[in-house]
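Sequence of SusD/RagB family nutrient-binding outer membrane lipoprotein (Chitinophaga hostae).
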Amino acid sequence: MKRIYRKWMLAAVAAALLTTGCRKIDDLQKNPNVSDQASPKLLLTGIAYDMYDNAWSDYSYAHRMAQYFVLNFDYYGNQSYAWGAGSFDRYVTLRNVDRLEIEADKQGANLVTANYKAIAKFMRAWAYSRMASQMGDIPLSNAINASKGVYYPAYDKQKDVFKQCLQWLEESNTQLDSIIKVNPATTVEGDIFFSGDINKWRKAVNALSLRILIALSKKEGDAELNIKAKFNAIVSNPAKYPLMTENSDNLQMTYNSSDKSNNFPLFPTGGLFYVNRAPLCATWLDLLTAVKDARVFKIAQPASGIPDNPLDPFARYKGAKTGDIQSVVQDQTNQGKFASLNQAYWLKDASGIPCIQLGASETFFNIAEGINRGWATGDAAGAYKKGIELSAAFYGATEDPLFWAQPEVAYQGNNAAGLKQILTQKYVAFFGNSGYEAYYNYRRTGVPVFNIGPSNENGGLIPVRFSYPQSEYTNNGTNVKAAVQSQFGGADTRNDVMWLLK
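Predicted 3D structure, token representation.
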């Protein structure tokens, strides 16, 4: 009997081994205690964190290059303008955007699924437009297609990338409009920016369309792009294309004091870095003090080494020059010659100040610029003023009547002088937010005039792009080289002029 039992046991074990041996290795690698399915709401949260440009990361690299701060100690970096490659990291985010749509579809045809898919179009437009703005031509039409056997995607023309982004945004606005008509109170889970408010997402969609259209200003004569008509369609029809009108509409990262992983990036000791190592830059600060702008008192801390002047409360707000030698800036900083970040304002607690990614102030400046350029009819002066007011309100400041009466501030009309005012005030308002937008707007317009001095290691030039990542030459060499050849004659440097700027 024992012999029969043993034979039965051996047969059972052998059968189990044979069954296991037939299982796919992928099945064996799965952890039965962990879900291998990502929910749409978790994917949306992760994508939103990925798209967030932290204005204070990397010691505020983007803000140094936009001449808001000046580093005075080379351990942390410099203002050499000798930067190198851009980043394709957003393709990781785009893979998650694809997954968001897949997981949303699994929920069936309903408003929740439609919400996720409409927002996914915004996320695509955001990611692709950012990479194209940074480098030029990029893979799009065949990107994220490894599952279809496309491992080496060809590059799409920068023009085609922006056309596709505008098309996605148009589709997103239309889809969100249809959803809201069915249920005005519909929401979406996992949204860290608007707490699920689809109406605010729709405003963000159209605000991004305006940002892209303005970025294409040098191409206003391109009949295929039809920039003027698209811009006019948006600003002249708020029912079809609602836009951000108040700071409560801002797409922004809001920090909190309860979760340390989401504290304000400089809290609690980071502010010391800006006081000791990064004084405010004269390029930005001089624009405010020249017109006695009340935002100065909120944003900046006066230079400790400059005495009070009862007749001029702005006298102690002096900035360092980006082009000066770092050791000179450091010596002057130690002497208290420069204003710095106002810790009492920015670091009042762990929640700090929100970081705008796309805001109402910028939207009104974009409207004003388009009207100034003749792309639409309307009140450019009113939009210009509203942009300043919203920026001041964001920082908790109020401009007095004397400020508005100054010739430098009062709108000078739909002409070159008025355009310069709009661009200047947009630059002022970008402080502390919006990633590289201040640099991109300077690159497009030359406003304001950037300081260039002996610290510049780029032949006295401000770069106009980022080169392609070295990893792309390793992984997709044939296609990146073809893109570089077609755009720049084989060069891939920070000074090559992309289609967008020609």
